[in-house]
Amino acid sequence: MAQRYVRIQTPEGRIYYGLLQVSGDVQVLDAPPWLKGQPTDRQIEPEGYKVLAPCVPSKIVAVGKNYAQHAAEMGGPVPPEPLLFLKPPTTVIAPGEDIAYPPQSERVDYEGELALVIGDRCADISPEAANSKIWGYTIANDVTARDLQQRDGQWTRAKGFDTFCPLGPWIVRELSPGARLQTFVNDNPEPVQSALISEMVFSPEVLVSYISQVMTLLPGDVVLTGTPSGIGPVQVGDRVRVEIEGIGYLENPVGRR
Fold first, then answer.
1. What is the CATH number of domain 4-51?
2. I need a labelling partner for 21 at 20 to 30 A (CA). Which of 5, 71, 91, 157 fits?
């Protein structure tokens, strides 16, 4: 099993980065792992912490229509270049926390995605150099108020509500290009989304390179790599689970705002 890097909070409110052990214990690191955090002698047992989102990004850079079939279901071609938008850091929530259904919207959609965690400052780098800047991989749900996206003609409001970026549950350092991403709603055993990571139009290193020529990426920043086809609405009371082979799963219920 790949090493899993977590961010946790104790009942006293202290927050730590750490290594999740098979036993469920967390070995505490003395700093975020992408800032060369090293293991300490402290171990925290499972009942002594709750899992948080695995990083605190200064920004979340997301990519639209990065799977050809999703572009088609949205009624358009694959963009000739990566289509970028931003989600504010206040959208981030931990596994298990409620996605808050905003009263302004009448249709809120799930979008399961692979998320990249940046480990080093990136500015004007090549795709070849980008490989060494991607510190690890986690799971995201790019929750979207679809009706507001269509009404506004731009995506800031639709993508930017608080709780609209569940992230986690942990970060792994390596991921097979053949890993499968799947999204499930409630207890339905059939996935509503299913695709291989390799089906992306623009690969992770191309995305990081492209973004770095627009804005500087900082350690701990997150890049959302796009969602496959099969997007659909959720209602209050639903549960959304996004799974990626080699990482695990991210599950969040939908609640009222």
1. 2.30.30
2. 91
Say whether 17 sits in a helix, a strand or coil.
strand
CA distance 46 to 146: 38
How do residues 191-201 score in pLDDT, each as one tens digit?
A: 999 999 999 99
**33-85 pLDDT tens trace:** 999 999 999 999 999 999 999 999 999 999 999 998 876 787 778 889 999 99
CB 161 within 8 A of CB 102: yes
φ and ψ at residue 59, rounded to 5 degrees: -160, 155
- Multiple choice CATH, 60-256, 3.40.50.970, 3.90.850.10, 3.30.499.10, 3.40.1440.60: 3.90.850.10
For 210-233, how does the pLDDT look when each residue is reduced to its tens digit (9 = 90+)? 999 999 999 999 999 999 999 999
Between the CA of residue 177 and those of 157, 203, 217, 240, what are the distances in Å?
Answer: 32, 10, 23, 24
Which two structure tokens, joined as six digits, stand for 105?
């919207």
Residue position matching structure tokens 């080699």: 246
In the DSSP assignment, the letter for residue 65 is S
Radius of gyration of the chain (CA): 17
Which run of H or of E encompasses 243?
strand 239-244
Helix or strand (DSSP H, E) at 19: strand 15-20
Query: Looking at the chain, which residues constitute the CATH 2.30.30 domain(s)?
Result: 4-51
H-run or E-run covering 158:
helix 156-160
